[in-house]
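Case study: TetR family transcriptional regulator.
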Amino acid sequence: MSTVRARLTPEESRSAALEAARTLLIEAGPQAVTLKAVAGRIGRTHANLLHHFGSAAELQAELARYLSDRITAAIGDAVVRARTGDADPREIVDRTFDAFGREGAGALAAWMILSGNKDALNPVLEAIHRLVDHLGQGHDDRPVHEITLWLVLAALGDSLLGAPMAAALGLRPEKARELARSHLLSSMGVAVDGARP
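Here is what the predicted structure looks like once written out:
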C-alpha cells in the first residue's frame, strides 16, 4: 500500500520545515538542524528542502529569523501588559530566558557564530532593535536599550553556561534568572516584593 503525500504550497512547506527545525533544535540542539533531518520530519526530500532554503546554513538563518519574530512578539506583549499592570514584570525576564534557553535561541546563536555564519544573526538583531525602538517610544525616561542589552546578554549567557556556573558557585540553577528579575524590577522602580519604593 503506498502512502499519498499531501500537496503543500511553497509557503506551507517552508512553514512546516521551520516548525520541524524548531522542534529539532529544542530536542537535540542546533547541530541536529540539517536539511536531511528536517526533510525526514515533514515527509519531504532533501532536494525539496534544498530548493526552499538553498543550504543548511540558510535553513538555520531562516530558523533564527522565525524564532526572533516569535520571541520578540511574545516579549513585546509581556512588556506592554506589564506597563499597563496586566502582567507581572517578571514575565519579561521569564520569556527572555525561556526564549534563549528552552526555545533554543541561545544555542542556535552560538552555533551560528562558531560556525562562521554571523551574518545570519542580523535578522535577529534587527528584530530586537525594532522591538526596543517601538517599546522605547514615549518612554524616554526609561533606559529601554540598556535594559535590553543586559537582559539579552544575561539570558544568552545563562542558556549556554548558567547551570554549570551556578553549580560551580554553589548556587541554584535558576539564580541568574532571579537576579535578572530583581535587576529589572529595580530598574523599573518596583521593589522586589512588587510594591513601589
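For the exam, be able to explain this: The chain has nine helices and no strands.
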